[in-house]
User: What shape does this take?
Amino acid sequence: MQAVTQGTIEFLKLYWAPLLCGVVIVAFLPLIVGYVVLVERKLMADMQARLGPMRVGPHGLLQPIADAVKLLIKEDIIPEDADKLVFWLAPVLSVGAALLSLAGIAIGPAFQIAKDINIGILFVVGVSAMGIFGIVLGGWASNSHYSLMGALRSAAQLVSYETAAGMALVSGLLFAGTLNITSIVEAQRQQGIWFGLLAPVAFFTYLVASIAETNRAPFDLPEAESELVAGYMTEFSGFRWSLYFLAEYTNMIVVASVATTLFLGGWLRPFPRTQWLNFLDFLPPLLMVAIGLYCLVRVPKQPARVQQFFMVAVAGLCFFLALVLAVPVLVPVVNPSLAAGVKPLYEGIHGSFWFLFKVSAYLYFFMWLRFTLPRYRFDQLMRLGWHFLIPLSIINVLVIGIAMIVGTYLHLEGWWLLLATLPASIIALLIALFILAAEQKSGQQQAGGAASDSYAG
Amino acid sequence: MLDKVIFYFFAGIAVASAVLTVTRRNAVHSAIFLITALLATAGIFLQLRAEFLFIVQIILYVGGIMVLFVFVIMLVNLDVAVRQIQFARQKWVALVISLALAAQVGLMFWSSGRMPGQGLPVLAAAPADKLPPNSEEVAKSLFSSYLLPFEIASVLLLVAMVGAVVMAKKRT
Amino acid sequence: MGERKPGDRERAITSVAKTSITDSGEKQHTLLGADELILNMGPQHPSTHGVLRVKLKLDGERVIGSECMIGYLHRGVEKIAEHRTYQQFAPYVDRMDYVAAVSNGLGYCEAIEKLLLVEAPVRARVIRTILTELQRIASHLLWLGTHALDIGALTPLFYCFREREEILKIFEKYCGARLTTHAFRIGGLQYEAYDTLEKDVERFCKNFESRIVEYEDLLTQNRIWLGRTKGVGILTSAEAIAFGATGPVLRASGVKWDIRKAMPYAAYDQYKFEIPVGTAGDTYDRYLVRMEEMRQSRLICLQAIENIPSGPILAKVGKVLKPPPGEVYHSIEAPKGELGYYVVSDGTVQPYRVRIRPPSFVNLQSFDRMVRGHLVADVVAIIGTLDIVLGEVDR
Amino acid sequence: MLPIGHYLFLGLALFIIGVIGVVTRRNVIIVLMSIELILNAVNINLVAFSRLYGDVAGQVFALFIIADAAAEATVGLGIIIAFFRNRETVLADEMDLLKW
Assistant: This one.
């Protein structure tokens, strides 16, 4: 017994800071996810010529809290013939995996829970992939045909697209030469160019595969509401359902973070080594000021006093953030001797800004696709995965490898590396398209006959 | 001390869920407990500073093989199987085999204790930051000394893939 | 397939889920093997357009058989008719195809007019044409929105409702109701057209031209949309005729049949318009046909508002309608197909029998033929492309 | 740090449980899962010794074992699906035909 206490104390002494970070993330993530959902609804409303949530709080800003309260006090229904243990376990598993994978993500050079783990990005990808058990087991345990079909679709889809996503990551990792997340970003700083530009095909593959992995439209077949009602979560309600929801959005944030880290330069600002673009550092504070000013302009148009007050408050918050963002870039201009002192401050504050900005842009793209595109059918999804994305990503790994060897021979670095990798990417794309065309041709000849066993994936 | 606590924690989970794996009636429950056992084993790997193997265990074993298992269990799930007799009449065979194995290992421990100066070796307590980066080490070893086994393993996987496809194909 | 041995060996009950909706005597099912899985779609399902219930026999996700179960919205409309006077029954027909109430009313009024041997005045007929064509556009817009939603495109629904709203506003201005309008009366119109009707319709038609391009931008060339609709639910022209399909479903199969041209009613003989026909008879063709129909309806409306003749709006029919004994069948081209009314009069104030031929009900008969061999996802696409309204199917 | 014996005992325990599972269970899927347990037990030993001697060869071979487990699971489950499709059972003692 004493050993246990002693061990625990030792453990706490060593790791109290990451643990605290972890608790903070777990505590705040539901709120963040709630607001991501609100943003999504607002964006969707904007694209669909309507207003979206407007009732709870000014411009519906308290809607996530109202939703959360509603979900928490809803009756917890477990179907009669459900497997109680698994039914209970599945959503927890889903959300647990999603939250755990956040541990490996570095928001800035300093903000990372599991620092310096050697396997870095593999940890994030691997642990988040475990969330599939939550989906599959949940679908099985609810003992309903729709749920089961959703679960099976989900399993087949995830297994298929994970291969493509993994291969795409490999293409990016070839440039980094390490799995450690901090080192990956540092490698991009040294190259002075994002790996997403060096390996556009890999980035594209990862983009598509990550949408499929997070079950987002147009690949949202496991929960396609017009076909399977709600797929694997048909029988879930209230709090359990909201856990699934939380897991889905957390997974979105995770894949966006992975893509940002590996392909979009992590916390680096665009063109990190280009000196004459240093004015980009002033962009974040200016952006905040612009948003704040816009809020102030909108104040007189608010119907209620509370809302006017609220708008002013939002504007004030924006100005405050602008100030925070401006300090690290303005201090060296005013007093160059302090430049070295504010350097870590700059890295931390601007790093987080750019990281979150890129993640948001990635998520925005997800949402945009969801509002625009119809849904794939299951066989089409499988065909896209197996006949196009997987060959494409594998060929891409090969040609990127060759391009890197060529680059080493020719001493190409930074932007010049594009000379080798761009033709390689184009070649990969062409070969994959050729394979797809050939497959389609042979598929048409067989026409239906052994019409793809859709679960055989 | 910390190492000990972590080891006992994971080892306890691993053994308990292994027992549950082989005793549950429902195959899905078995699979869940097997997943737990595999994750606990991954924890042991981490405690042994084999980070790369830890993540391979999670990605490949848990995220790959076990998904396949669960998938197949769902495809062939048999309600009736849960109600059938779960154990074949081979418990004597099992007992004999396990006793023999236990005896063998026990003999090894006993003899190693008997030999002078040959007590059970203790794992070197190298600080974690002194260890070489694990994935690089494994990769180097894998692609230099063990390149041929690596290639053979990949051929094995290919064969397995083709075999599985042939096997699972519908005969029309 | 090997034989299963009977006897002491426990027969494997192979069900994917522990409870499956099966009728007695049917086997339990599994995803694997020869047995099929039965999936009960509806009546509570997001995309069965109301309360249609479809029992699907599935092999994996492939449909090997289907059965439509209807009647969840049966209100006995035809029986009610026998206990109401001719005028009293008119509002009931609005509740059949509730997304195209104006067309229903037109068909009923014209059928009774035929029975009474009167004809509506020219002005009334022109206004009827305008409103009916607007209703056709509104109905097709609703179809487009929900159909796209079934296939997973969220946004067209809201664009469609934006335009439908404008049409409903015109209806509201005209008769005070938006959905179940009861816009016409036997013998003509109840209300005189309001002052700005022509302007409103014109403005709508002007806007609509660019709006329809918006929908097409979102869908027509979209690869996923093409993949989901092309080759799905093919109905050849012979089959379509055999199933008695009418309306866009028939025309998409390549049969040029439109009652507005074949047996003109209202004021359709005065206007020029095209009948779009498809070639392949698949979901995509039906989509294209309906899109083109909306354009044609717009053209008809534009032609009609150019010259609305003046004159009375109501023919001379008495307060109490007592048609001479006899029977009449009158059909119009409703948005969804041929809407027919068969009315038998025994000379009293109440019809002896009213039989309605709803287009949705007849078109639904081809459902089983269309879904066989497709995947579950296609089932909802096919339900959508048939454009059924359960109020009309069940009556 | 811990003596190697701890790991060997853990490996032994998992191995024996796995063997018992393989020998006694009738459900082939659970038999396959027990085999996974056995392979895991071996992996623990390999990694422990790799740590003991500071040589990554043990970990490399553990990797090979995982690859082998993947191959085994794939083929095994393929056989189970093929068998189930014909006989609608997954019980080991009913697999008594060489050909059907």
About this structure: The radius of gyration of chain B is 21 Å. The mean pLDDT of chain B is 78. Helices of chain B lie at 2-23, 27-47, 51-75, 79-83, 91-114, 134-144, 147-168.
